[in-house]
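Re-run with default settings, no changes from the original entry. Doing this only to confirm the output is reproducible before filing.
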Amino acid sequence: MTTTSAQRIHIVGVGGPGTSAIAIILAEMGHRVSGSDVRESQVLDRLRAAGVAVNVPHDPLVVNGCDIVTYSAAVRQTNVELVAAAERGVRVLTRAAILGWIATQATTIAVAGTHGKTTTTTLLTMMMREAGRDPGYLIGADVPQLPASAHWGDENFVVEADESDSSHRAIKPYATILTNVDVDHLDEHGSYDGIVASFDEYLAEIRGPKVLCIDDPTTARLAHEHSAITYGLGAAMYRATNVQFVAGGARFMVEHPDGRHEVSLPLRGVHNVRNFLAAFAMARVLGVSVESATRAVADFVGVHRRFEVRAHDGGTTFIDDYAHLPAEIAAVLAAVRADSAGFARVIAVFQPNRFNRMAVMSDAYCDAFIDADVVVITDIYASGTDRIEGVTGQLVVDAIRNAHPYARVEWRKERADLVEFVARECRDGDLCISMGCGDIETFPDEVVARRRELSRGA
């Protein structure tokens, strides 16, 4: 896309967090936007309210008259709307390509890295808004304190740059944050070295500020090679010291080129301290005052599916979290253990994601659950990937048991069995945290409903 004139754009799989946000931005930019999905949802209702025409289910006729058709990464190429678009000669763009075009229409600040993109993007956006600016933003989750997960604002645009579909290479931002580099999306990059090379090339094209974490060995090396601004708990330009975790949050001093200030961050875990530092460093570079940046996070309630309290039932606290990679799971569980509140037991429920991911890295989960008392693994959520013979959640179970023979690890393949087991297992003082990026999102509601049935003798 090379023109700013209004386009007729259709999005296949528009109900996803990334594609729904793109739909909102395109509509606010003045384009005529439609979308489709396989089932109704609250997200689709919000899109309709924003002026996006949505059809359920997919219908090949809706691509007639379109200038552009784009699609979610979870949509297969055999989708009837994509097939119809190709047959009619309609231009079909990947999500990465259309996001790259959007980014050219503003001064774009991208947040890249394997972990922490959504929270860091949200924190930076809130800091800029607190400073009286109106940045555009695209966030891959709902944020209660923002009007929507996406917005087209003034000359700045804050966006997550995802490496899963090489969006980080397509966006071409003015400035960037790189949080960390970990093993994932080997189907896209081939190897860990391939992932590192893609970020190296990405950074080489950035003409503005580059903010990188010094605590991650790979990003520390890249920071040196690209003369980046650094943040972290080590010897960084923006550094957190005297970190304490109390009452579900963190208190620490942030030392930076202009001085040192006390910060109260209502988020758990060292990983969120780093997320704050990343956003703070970029905000300061962009001219946001220390006062605005710290005030913006003082009452932060978090991001949807990031340690989200879903229920309290029978003395058990039920938490839902998006963590689905080993380092993310380990960080979330470590944050629970570090918290002063304390729980009798931590029950971790995990839904592995993507057959191709589990085929190559299921062993990497062997130490991810060491801070849990009970680990419950269910089967793999496909997320649009093809089933692979012999690849199931049992691989994760085996990896944990081989590394920790005395750990209590339960294999509950079927959803009904999973719900029944956890409903009966949880007791007073427990924290049950379900993790993954599939339909595990609804699990806390299912467990609580079953527990209430059991309490009635059902």
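The chain has 16 helices and 21 strands. The mean pLDDT is 90.
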